[in-house]
Amino acid sequence: MSRLLIFGLGYTASRIAYAMRGRGWQVEATGSAGNIGFDERDGVSAALAQASHVLSSAPPADGSDPVLDRYGDALKGRMLAYLSSTGVYGDADGAWVDEASPTGSGRRSARAECDARWLEAGARVFRLPGIYGPGRSAFDRIEAGKAHRIDLPGQVFSRVHVDDIVAGVVAAFEQAVPPGAYNLSDDLPASQNAVIEEACRRLDVEPPPLVTLEEADLSPMARGFYAENRRVANGKAKRVLGWKPRHPTYREGLAAIMARE
Question: Which SUPFAM superfamilies does the entry link to (predicted)?
Answer without folding.
Answer: NAD(P)-binding Rossmann-fold domains
